[in-house]
Amino acid sequence: ASEQVLRALRALQQPLPATHRPQMSSFLGDVVFWPTEVSGRAFVAGMVAMAVVKVLLERALFPLARKSMPPAAFAGGRIDPNLSFFTIHFLVNMVVCYLAVPDTLWVLAHPVEWRASENLGHALVMAVHIFHVLFYYDSLTTMDYVHHGVSVGLVGSMGYLFLWGAGLHAMDFFICGLPGGLDYGMLALVKMGALRKITNKRVNKWLNIAVRWPGILLVCYIMVVTKLNMGDSAPVGWLPIWLVLFLHGGNGLYFAARVVTNTAEAEYALRMEKKAAKQ
C-alpha cells in the first residue's frame, strides 16, 4: 500500500530534467528577482480580495451576527480588528494550502530532487502580511513587527531572490498554511465566543509540536539533502539555505516552545480557578 501511495505521489508531476536545471555556484546560487507576471497578478488579486472581504466582514456579516457575539468583539463601538484579521488570515491560509499541497506532496516524495514551481501560494503569504501592516497598523504588537520584519520581510523576500522551486511551497505549507490557518480560524471563533480559549491553546499546541515544527524541520533537511545530492547544479547556494535553516528553523522552534509554555500556564491557571471555585 505504501508503495502504491509513493507511485501515486510521483505521478503528480515528473521532476525537471537535469539538462534544464540551471547551473549555479555552491555558495550563493543564482540571485534573481523572479516573480512572474502570474505571481504578480496573484499578489494583486490577493490584496484586492482581502480588501473586499474586510469590507464585507466589518460592514455586513459581523454586524448581522452582533447579538450572538460577546461585547468585547465590538468594544469601543468598533469591531475588534483582530477578529477581522484572524478571519481573513484563515481564509487566505486555506487558499495557500490548496495551492501548495501538490508541490508539498511532490517534495516529500522526491526529497533529493528539484523542480520548478510558480509558487503562487507564496505571493498570497506575502500579501496577507503586507495587508496586515497596511490596514491593521494600529493593532500591531512588538511581536508582529518582529515577525513581519524577519520571517516575512527578510526570509519571505528571499523566496523571490532565489530559485527554491517546489520547496518554497512546501515550506509555506508548514510554516504558514495549514497550522497557521487552523490557528487563526480558532482565534476568530474565540473572538466570536464560539470556542473556548483553552481549547484553541490545546489544539494549537499539538499543531505546533506535531505539524508545524516537524514540517519546517523536514523541509529544511530536504533542502540540505537536495543540495548535497545536486551539488553545483542545485539552483540555490549554501548561504541562502543556511539562512533559511537558522531563521525559519528558529521560527518553528521558538513558536513551538512558546505555545507549549503558554498552554501549560493557561492549564495551570484553569486548574487553580476550578480549585478555588470548589472551596
Walk me through this protein's architecture.
- The structure is a single chain.
- By secondary structure, the chain is an all-alpha fold.
- It has one domain (35-277).
- The protein has helices at 2-10, 37-64, 81-109, 120-135, 142-161, 166-192, 197-230, 238-278.
- The longest helix has 41 residues, at 238-278.
- The protein is globular, with a radius of gyration of 21 Å.
- Mean pLDDT is 88; it is low at 16-24.
- The chain crosses the membrane at residues 42-62, 83-101, 121-137, 149-167, 173-194, 206-224, 236-257.
- This is TLC domain-containing protein.
- Keywords: Membrane, Transmembrane, Transmembrane helix.
Q: How does the overall form come out from the CA principal axes?
A: globular
Using only C-alpha atoms, the radius of gyration works out to 21 Å
Question: What's the helical proportion of residues?
Answer: over 70%
Q: Residue-averaged pLDDT, rounded?
A: 88
Structural class: mainly alpha
Assembly context of the chains: single chain
Number of domains: 1
**How would a textbook summarize the main sheet?**
none
Q: Please give the alpha-carbon distance between the first and last residues.
A: 56 Å
Uncertain segments are: 16-24
- Secondary-structure element order, as H and E? HHHHHHHH
Number of strands: 0
Beta-strand fraction estimate: under 5%
Instruction: Please report the number of helical segments.
Output: 8
